[in-house]
Amino acid sequence: MPRFESLFLHLSSGLGIDVIGLNSGKGISAQTKTLSERHLESKEFKEQWGEDLCEQINFVLFRPLGYKLRHKIAHGEIASGECNFYNASLMFYFYVVILSRLKKK
Q1: Partner of 5 for a Cys bridge, out of 35, 48, 56, 99, CB 3.0 to 4.6 A?
Q2: Within 13 Å, how many C-alpha atoms sit on residue 65's CB side?
Q3: What tens digit of pLDDT does each residue of 73-82 get?
């Protein structure tokens, strides 16, 4: 999960999105560079990555009614049964989707 976050933020930054500036405000340090719901709900991310992909990632990683995989992993609350082929496939799907959208300049 941290690798996906890092890659997604790095690619987003390369596309011209101010990934650190989107985290400022609401008591979050300007140095923080972690993916959040704020990023995925922002106009900048939705324009670059598409509303559907941002919502899919948000649902799998953050949403209370979703899988909340990021929170479970970050806080050590993930059950061993959740470390399965299905969740691994979801993360692999996100890698394939974001990498398929890149074009070499």
Answers
A1: 35
A2: 1
A3: 989 999 999 9
